């Protein structure tokens, strides 16, 4: 089987220098993909909010979704930023 797959013998598993670099890579990847998804979701919900007319229940539900998305973004980006600031003061690498 190894002879049939090109590069099979030379393939390397995921490598990282330490656990810290792996975790920061995961956090940055999550941030990279979550920002556009959050922006599109908020824009879409805003359009639905404008189209909801006089339906107060729907407006309340859509506002709740928008607030939840903003809180989630604050947690994702704020926690990573705070961790980066703390690591700079403590002397770690980011």
Summarize the structure in words.
The chain starts with 18 loop residues before the first helix and ends with a helix. The longest helix is centred in the C-terminal third of the chain and has 35 residues, at 56-90. The model has no long low-confidence stretch (mean pLDDT 82). The protein has one domain (19-90). It has helices at residues 19-51, 56-90. Helices cover 72% and strands 0% of the residues. It is mainly α and 94 residues long. It is elongated. Helix 1 runs antiparallel to helix 2. The chain has two helices and no strands.
Describe the SSE topology.
Elements: H1 19-51, H2 56-90
Helix pairs in contact: 1-2
Rounded radius of gyration (Å): 21 Å
Query: How would a textbook summarize the main sheet?
Result: none
Structural class: mainly alpha
Show unreliable segments: none
How many structural domains does the protein architecture include?
Answer: 1
User: How much of the residues is beta strand, in percent?
Assistant: under 5%
Distance between the termini: 41 Å
SSE pattern: HH
The percent range for helix content is over 70%
Which geometry do the CA atoms define?
elongated
Mean pLDDT: 82
How many β strands by DSSP?
0
Total number of helices: 2
In short:
The chain is mainly alpha-helical.
List the main descriptive attributes of the protein structure presented here:
94 residues, mainly alpha, 2 helices, 0% strand
């Amino acid at each position: 089987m190894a002879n049939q797959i090109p590069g099979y013998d030379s393939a390397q598993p995921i490598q990282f220098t330490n656990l810290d670099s792996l975790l920061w890579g995961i956090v940055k990847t999550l941030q990279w993909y979550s920002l556009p998804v959050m922006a599109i979701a908020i824009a879409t919900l805003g359009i639905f909010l404008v189209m909801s007319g006089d339906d107060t229940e729907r407006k309340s539900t859509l506002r709740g979704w928008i607030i939840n998305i903003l809180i989630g973004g604050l947690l994702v980006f704020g926690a990573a930023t705070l961790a980066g600031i703390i690591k700079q003061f403590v002397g770690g690498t980011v």
